[in-house]
Amino acid sequence: MGAIDTALTRLRVATPGRSYTFALAVGLVLALAGAIYLSYWGGLTTEDAFKYQSAVVAAQRDAEVLEVEQFERRAKPVQLRAFEKLLESDLARIDAIAANPAERAPAFQIPPESVAAFQTLNEQLHVREALGEKRFEASVNSNVRNRNLSNVLFAVVALLFTFISARLRRRVEESRTLVENLQRAFISRRTELPNLKIGSVLISATEGAQIGGDLFDIYSIDGRYGSFLVADVSGKGVAAAVDTAFIKYAIRTLLSEVKDPGDVLARFSSLYSRNAESDETFVVLFLGIVDTETGEVCYASAGHEPAWLRTERDVQTLTPTGPLVGVLSDTQYSSQTVRLQPGDALIVATDGLTESRDKRGRMLDADGVRRWLEEIEGSAQATADAIVRRLRRRSRRIDDDLAILVLRYEPSTQPRPSVPEPVLLGSGH
Questions:
Q1: In what order do the strands lie in the sheet with 214-220?
Q2: For the stretch 319-348, what's the b/e string if a residue is b when 16 or more beta carbons lie within 10 angstroms of its beta carbon?
Q3: Collapsing DSSP states into helix, strand and coil, what is residue 340?
Q4: Which pLDDT tens digit goes with each residue over 307-341?
């Protein structure tokens, strides 16, 4: 369990840095908002100053035109009304954009009674024009200062972004290392054994997850003997995967003390009952120890789905040798022995295979798998892949975690004289 402890320790150490990263992110957002605000507000004040000047100039022009039409050309009142409306509109614009009372539009009576009224209006508009120029110059200077400040803030934003990006990249790398450590503990891995070709498939029904409640494990006990394990933990996803890590390492530890699979399962059942977080959890598993020189396999199964022995002549079903792990704390398991001949294969799968349903809801069951195996040919991995292809064609989707392990005996040395058929023996445990 050292990989799990190391990964969790690194996770705890990395947690305090989150507040620091969060503070940097808040600073980044505030700096960006301030830079955008200064840029926007500076441009807005300059635009208003320009509009004010434009309104003053337009009022001066319209006042001159109205004066000419009224007192020089002696236009009729109905003809003057259009020019009067233009002047009224410009004076109203001046009032709307004025920043203070001094910039407000001068009072002007329409229709004016004399040329003197136009002269007074023109003088007052010149005063507003000077105020508008002063306002425009002040807004430009302010805008320059704001732009300089916003540029500084944008530079701070860039710096913070670069710093946060580097920190996040470092966190991602740490998380990737953490995940790799956890995967080494959780995910099933194959260890090659002499004279055996191994095929395997592991599928999680949890979308986006690479780990689940099913597992297989190949373990080299010494140069001659190896063990293989297929297990199915109640539940799915990461929560079930935590149990699979416990199962894998507990079984390996027990194998260092006991070499009989039935005794190993009995001890593991007691250990699991004492350590299970819930009384409702259980495990089904198949454990085998193989003599790679003779092809002899001693196995025990705790309520596991049937395993299948495929020979040149037929496919035999290996039934369970004991109940589920987790149901009773004190349980005994028997061991059985089968001898593999060159070319024989042992296939073990979790219930994600036998309990799969077709489009009509019909379950595949153990006999259905046996019929498939009678038709499938090829290497160990080809057999495992062929099973999955058939399963995908038969079912709309894989709704349960699935583990498949295929061990094919292919000795490299001259085999001992073969017996006509595999012999199943009970050890009586």
A1: 214-220, 225-233, 283-291, 296-302, 336-339, 425-426
A2: ebbbbbbbeeeebebbbbbbbbbeebbbbb
A3: coil
A4: 999 998 899 999 899 998 887 767 889 999 999 99
Under 8 Å between Cβ of 155 and 22 = no
DSSP 327: T
Q: Which two tokens stand for residue 78?
A: 């109905």
Q: What angle do CA 346, 408, 337 make, to 5 degrees?
A: 45
Structure-block tokens of residue 406 = 């295929």
pLDDT confidence bin for 213, thresholds 50/70/90: confident
Cβ pair 100, 48 in contact under 8 A = no
The angle formed by the CA atoms of residues 344, 346 and 349, to the nearest 5 degrees, is 155
- Cα–Cα distance for residue pair 31/330, rounded to 1 Å: 66
pTM above 0.85, yes or no: no
Please tell me the number of Cα atoms within 13 Å of 269 on its side-chain side: 26
